[in-house]
Amino acid sequence: MKYVDEFRDGDVAKRLGASIRRAADTDRSYNLMEFCGGHTHAIFRYGVQDLMPENVKFVHGPGCPVCVLPIGRIDNAIALAEEHGAMLCTYGDMMRVPASGRKSLLKTKAAGADVRMVYSTQDALKLARENPHKEVIFFAIGFETTTPPTAVAIKQAQAEGLKNFSIFCNHVLTPAAIQHILQSPEVREMGAVSIDGFFGPSHVSSVIGSEPYEFFAEEFQKPVVIAGFEPLDVMQSALMLINQLNEGRHEVENEYTRVVTREGNLKAQALVAEVFELRREFEWRGLGMVPYSALSIKDAFSEFDAEVKFNVPKIVAYDVKGCECPSILRGVKKPTDCKLFGTVCTPENPMGSCMVSSEGACAAYWSYGRFRQPTADGNNKANQGSNA
Amino acid sequence: MSDKQTKARRFPMRLDIKNGKVDMAHGSGGRAMAQLIEEIFLKHLDNELLNQGNDQAMFNTSAGRMVMSTDGHVISPIFFPGGNIGSLAVHGTVNDVCMSGAKPLYLSASFIIEEGYPLADLNSIVESMAAAAKKAGVAVVTGDTKVVEKGKGDGVFITTTGIGVVPDGVNISGDKAAVGDAILVSGTMGDHGVAIMSSREGLEFETEIQSDSAALNGLVAAMVEAVPDIHCLRDPTRGGLATTLNEIALQSQVGMQLIEKQIPVQPDVTAACELLGLDTLYVANEGKLICICAPDDADKLLEVMQQHAHGKDAAIIGYVIEDEHGFVQMETTFGGSRIVDWLAGEQLPRIC
Q1: What CATH number is given to the structural domain containing B161?
Q2: Chain A nearest CA to B109, separation (Å)
């Protein structure tokens, strides 16, 4: 398939692997954090780690929108469907994320609430037009990539005078989260997490550009390379990061030049600025309260804001005991360090959010890499069948 | 009195197949149901055993082993590129029967129809079912029709049951994969799932991909004749190649090593999966099989498969390895390796 196969070419990968081996200094290690779940997925799906020398390690970051959403917000969404009798539209990944009290949107749907799986904000708008007597709420999640389509939906709803459509907004921002990780005591003082450089997000950067990373590359002296989501992109970017580290540089470089510019997509940015504003703080699963890390809908559009319309309360909810998702999301622990991993927590029966989405580190470890990762109880988990 | 005159007397008005709809009376057991059966089901599925009009079909059996299998069909949409629920209901069960190496003989069909369903569509479905059965050389010899109130079903659901006879000397089972065995597939993976997806409401995208829905008993007969000692046969339907291989690995207590670049996939299917974020290995097939055999038989089987219309893209895609964990692993086109796990959750509901 054109424009795809070129970026998955095994021969090029071999040559690139050899270059990385030559470039990597055997006297040190290179801990490179991929922020995005898209990169985590590519690394595991194509077996990129196999082509890397042992001292080049991928540290999996919190860039999976499903994984970082705090449980309280999912409880809110369930309440919107159950108590307000609304038609709650959401992306498929959200359906199975565990909420409080062993609930999930999938179970809520089975119990009779109207929960719909959609592929885009436009599907939700269409449902609102077709069901004028029903409140239709779109459960909006995601980083900067999915924010512009939500803004478009709000503007469309306003133009059409749709009275039964609203957005439960959970859009979060990438640079704030990366900065928060770098400022966390584990990274700064305790040295528990060693992160030498970052793979910058690909789709997010196509919207916000590469400029927003310049501040913390300089401030924290960590190199950033904006990387595409194909496996060759990841390898090429790893080489660029290794070269920067060898040369003592800490710059923002762009490997994904076929899509990303320094300024990003100005039109999309303007649209987002028109509809959304910064929240003072927002809770991230794993990271806690992160200042200025999320967006809310501006007052001018508040009739489309489900939080205002339905007076959504703030719910503080806690992870399942023993679940290491918070530490895994910060890169402090690996999925295999978690006692629940592969014992009671599997993709069929997830306890934590990282096991749900294919972009979550736990799901990626379990689905693609399990055979070489001993779990906390010292064993690989055997093929247990689909109902294990 | 001729047949035609008998019918004319029993049902003075013919069914309005063009504009009529199924109503509750069609499931009542009364005259309306008798007419529906006669003018749609008997008309198309026409065979001696069915035409006897009994509540069961009676036939002689040969001595030896028989197999029996049943399959419910709830696919949405009911009509899709490359077939409809009628043809699928024949293919699905014929394939389940013949994956034992058996020759399928007879089918039963049970219809659950939603009130208000157009008679024209029902007629087309039964017509396709009859054509598929004829092509596969099986007969639908008994059946049942129920009608449920509007909103209590979704168009038509069809359950078919099939029976067949197993040739002597053939012992095919999912627990017989042995270390060193070759793993073959009969053609391209994922066609059915992508064809269904492309015609789903709210998800329409332009592709010329047709479902691969087909009866594989002809292909299986040729394979079994060439190599009676085939170890495993299975059709990778829901959950696709990945899930089916995991089932066999678990049953046989072995591991598997696949080579990604040898797995046949149509470029359009790859493109659609790329777009929708699906993994082709998990997308359903309805006219393909997986075959596991001794390494020495692999080339011979491959040749037989490639000569058959339903196996022209057949390929050897990997081999069975010893693995206490029962993992299915794959060497990726990229040169790395990964595990190919069971499908988790639901990739696409109501695919068959």
Answers
A1: 3.30.1330.10
A2: 29
Identify whether residues A360 and A331 lie together within a single domain. yes
Nearest alpha carbon to residue B101 among B138, B56, B67, B150? B67
Q: Is ipTM over 0.85? A: no
- Asked if A193 and A284 sit in the same domain, the reply is no
* Interface residue B175 vs chain A (CB under 8 A): no
| Per-residue pLDDT tens digits of chain A, which is 388 residues long | 777 788 888 899 999 999 999 999 999 999 999 988 889 889 988 989 889 999 999 988 888 888 889 999 999 999 999 999 899 999 888 888 889 988 999 999 999 999 998 888 999 999 999 999 999 999 999 999 999 999 999 999 999 999 999 999 999 999 988 888 888 777 666 566 688 999 999 999 999 999 999 988 998 899 999 999 999 999 999 999 999 999 999 999 999 999 999 999 999 999 999 999 999 999 988 788 899 999 999 999 999 999 999 999 998 888 788 888 888 888 888 888 999 998 888 887 888 888 887 778 888 888 776 555 544 544 455 565 544 3
State phi, psi for A79 to the nearest 5 degrees.
-65, -35
Supply the CATH number for residue A32's domain.
3.40.50.11750
Pair type for strands A87-90 and B255-259: unpaired
Residues from A contacting B (CB-CB < 8 Å) are 1, 4, 8-10, 13-14, 17, 44-51, 95-96, 118-119, 123, 126, 231, 346-348, 363, 366-371, 380-386
Same domain, A75 and A59: no
The residue of chain B with its CA nearest to that of A48 is: B336
C-beta of residue A234 within 8 angstroms of C-beta of residue A48: yes
**A60 lies in some domain:** yes
Q: Closest partner residue to A46 among B274, B336, B339, by Cβ? A: B336
Same domain, B156 and B190: no
Give whole-number Cα distances, B79 to B19, B67, B88, B110, B214, in Å: 18, 30, 10, 18, 15
A168 vs A34, A246, B184, B256, CA distance in Å?
28, 45, 49, 45
Same domain, A168 and A201: no
Is A46 in contact with B338 (Cβ distance < 8 A)?
yes
Beta strands in A108-251 (DSSP E): 115-117, 136-142, 165-171, 197-200, 224-226
B158 and B188, same domain (yes or no): no
The residue range of the domain holding B312 is 182-339
Q: How far is B71 from chain A (nearest CA, A)?
A: 19
